[in-house]
Amino acid sequence: MASLYQAVAGINKLELLAMADSTIHRLHPMSKLLTTVVYIVIVVSFPTDNLSGLVPLIFYPVILMSLSGTPYLPLFNRLLIAMPFALLGGLSNIIILRETAFQVGNLSVSVGVISFLSIMLKTMLTVFAVLILTATTSLIEISNQLTTLRVPKILSLQFVMTYRYLSVLLSEVSSMLTAYSLRAPKQKGIKMEDTGSFLGFLIIRSFDRAERVYRAMKCRGFQNVYHCKQSAKLCLSNWLYIFIVSSMIIGLRFVNLSMILGALIC
Q1: How many angstroms separate the Cα of 72 from the Cα of each of 77, 90, 131?
Q2: Would the pTM of this model clear 0.90, i.e. be above it?
Q3: What is the pLDDT of residues 173-188, one digit of tens each?
Q4: φ, ψ (nearest 5 deg) of residue 101
Q5: SS (H, E, C) 90-104
Q6: Using alpha carbons only, how large is the chain's radius of gyration in Å?
Q7: What are the residue boundaries of the structural domains of the chain, listed by start?
């Protein structure tokens, strides 16, 4: 029960963070969206054996979190949700790729280990980039900028509605768990034989709740489009931000700073 309430509070926490005031929050939503896309594309483009090239890209989330005042703990909690998927994908590389990449004394480091660490770091960087974007930009603004970039309106609307409905779905689960625990006060969790009916009623209640939410939105004039204040046009400072940050990120793709620093130290 407590974990469900924490999940609902966590969803609302990101929206509250997006309402803060900082240098990053005041940037145009389009500039933050474009630089985030560039960053994710560059991170993903690195080959799995180029771990040292990924390390300098840590500067992007660290600097943005510092300038925006975004707390680390809420983002780390959400990062942990994605890490198990990367962990399972990376472990297979350790098993399959056993060739020795380099040795540290008597310890041999295989290509699979390098690939595993690279996958984990890529996942961490890309997830952090998206989380920082949502923690500094409201969901409606992101949706509007996606529409400006000619993303089909149905996709941007689906993106917003899915995010909004998560808290509603969790509330339904919480209500059903409360009812179940009142009928079985000594029972910890849900019995295996009750799981099927629990999930079935959850689907039915979810459809019913979604229908009521949709009707309420239609009564308030909803026409399958979110209407909100249009963002101002990109000014010179925003274009400079896009150019400078994107240039630095793209430059790190072709200039391995870790190897250069290592050579200078040696």
Answers
A1: 9, 25, 11
A2: no
A3: 777 877 878 877 777 7
A4: -90, -45
A5: HHHHHHHCCCEEEEE
A6: 23
A7: 20-137+229-255, 139-224
* Average confidence (pLDDT) over 18-22: 84
Phi, psi of 47 (to 5 degrees): -65, 155
Residues 191-235 have pLDDT tens digits of 777 778 888 888 888 788 878 887 887 888 777 666 555 667 788
Closest to 29 in 3D by CA, of 156, 154, 115:
156
- Which helix (DSSP H) or strand (DSSP E) does residue 212 occupy? helix 192-219
Owner of token pair 């483009």: 45
Q: Which residues, in sequence order, are CB contacts of 17 under 8 Å at separation 6+?
A: 70, 71, 74, 135, 136
Supply 260's token pair: 């250069």
Count of alpha carbons within 13 angstroms of residue 237, beta-carbon side = 7
Q: Which residues contact 169 (CB under 8 A, 6 or more apart)?
A: 206
Q: How far is CA 15 from the centre of its chain?
A: 13
